[in-house]
Specification:
There is one protein chain. By secondary structure, the chain is an alpha/beta fold. The protein is built from 15 helices and 30 strands. Strands 1-2-3-4-5-9-10-13 form an 8-stranded parallel barrel, surrounded by 5 helices. Strand 4, helix 4 and strand 5 form a beta-alpha-beta unit. The longest helix is centred in the N-terminal third of the chain and has 21 residues, at 101-121. The protein is elongated and about 105 Å long.
Amino acid sequence: MESPHLEEDNMPRVSSRASCGRDFHCCPDISLALETACRAGFDFVCLPLINPRFKREFINGPAKDRKCALTRSDMCLPSQDWNSLVVGKTSPWLQLDSKHYHTRKNSELALKEELTWSAHLGLPAVLLPLNNGNCTNLAQCISEHITSSYYQQQYWIQVPLISAADMCEPVIEGVDTDMNGETFEDTWSWWNLFRSLCDSNKRLGVAIELTADLPSNDVIERWLSEPIKAIIVSTSLFLTNKKGYPVLAKAHQNVIKKMFKLAAQVIITGQDRHPEKTIRSYQQYIDHLWQTQDPLDTVSQFAKGYEDFLQSPLQPLMDNLESQTYEVFEKDPIKYSQYQLAVYEALRERIPLEDRDKKDVVIMVVGAGRGPLVRAALAAAQEIGVTIRRLYAVEKNPNAVITLENIKDEEWGSNVEVISCDMRDWEAPEKADILVSELLGSFGDNELSPECLDGAQRYLKDDGISIPEKYTSFLAPVMSPKLHNEVRASKIERGKAPEAPFEMPYVVRFHNCATLAKPQPVFTFIHPNRDPVIDNCRFKSLEFTVPYDSIVHGFGGYFETNLYKQVTLSIVPETHSPGMFSWFPIFFPIRDPIMMKKNTTVTVDIWRRCTTKNVWYEWAFRCGGQISPIHNPKGRSYTIGL
């Protein structure tokens, strides 16, 4: 039997099959239950830590001083099985938020006893149910246990996907409608209260309980930003197909497949309702859903393993890129074909068909790297039948220049001249018809394309063309407890303030994340910049209305560019260039996350500040009475060097 995917960080390994567990409400024989589940194809079991009927009495009552074993011996399974095949479940009678002192206190002592036992067994995770939004005392007990416990156990908080409003205590505001228009209490608010009280500890995860009715798609998308560890699926939700096998409705299938993208495991609970097909048929069906997921697109395949991984943005103006970095970017199947098309269109418009055998052009590629833009320009000219009299390949990285010189000798010939120089310092011997560059970062201008191209535009003829000719950055509020925790856990460089990790942007492939509103344009730069009065400092204030209760952990940044006229590249989600993977989004974090109520507005103010030596961003947020300080003032935590 394959071991379940219950590693220390509780992140399932990449697998060719679904990880599926079997839930037992009562377990007279643990060894038999585990053996039965294994034979049925399940990877792990969920078992009560204590007999569900064993209601201890610590305060008073006839059983207060009864002498007996709390539960069965730990020797009924070997340690390896406890450590990898069993998820523990707390007693269903616990009421840690009861108004009655004796009930509450008794529950507290019983929970502590059960969690201590689960740590002794070395269980990888414990399942705790949230039945309503009244959970503050439970949160305090779990927080205290996490703080004091020596064993790094995970806690899966079981939350139903939907809960009828008239069946729940109206403890917390938040009523919504499901797909059928029925009202329900927003169970996300239960979880949000609980994890917020526990300071969003990384050892907390969600075991989402699939329900017969489903909330709106927006609500489901919001859950995808949470640390979903498991999906609990009752056998009562299964239908029967023509061959007598259990199947799920399309809507439930879609929810499970969305959760699969977070590598969530599935727990089958409830009695076997298809005994003639055996309980194994449920596991086989879940595995069928796993196997029939849509294949990863080109971008997702490229990003595999980089999801939600924070990286510092490249600074190619200050740092010389390595060969491996060039190689990765050169594999992009879209970017350079679009650049080639842009050069083609510029040449087609610049030189009429009847003049192509009489006129030639001068092209400058500034920031040539290892030559992909040179190849694109030469291919475009050959395709349209225009002669390039001279192509200057300007590159400041001396290591990349070695590659360029070799390619020139072997492939390009004397029409290409390699210039080893910073484009801003070079004195060109002539002016160019077309200036080509690829200096764009994830936020458009964050690799200092404006400064570089402003310095290089003196090489252009008065009617010369810049490729790109225009680019615009975009921002959108995002919710991602995982990214916020990653930033919070970042090491602080010597000499930097404690808030420094929250005052710098990160390049990241968003995955365990929800975008809360449509991205809006921020800064636009046009090249060549014919207005010397306009500098590259910018300020923008944007308002976003968030459609449901949520938390803003930061803002996702994107860009789109017009290389030439209608030839574009974009990483904005709605207009993303299909198959292009050269850029991941950029993430501007918030030091203190902003709690948003449904249909409320958050305002972000963002500045692009410049000196002769550095460029940096500053940003701040406003929502109702919540006002953040300006992040990264005077570039104290992060700058981009000129």
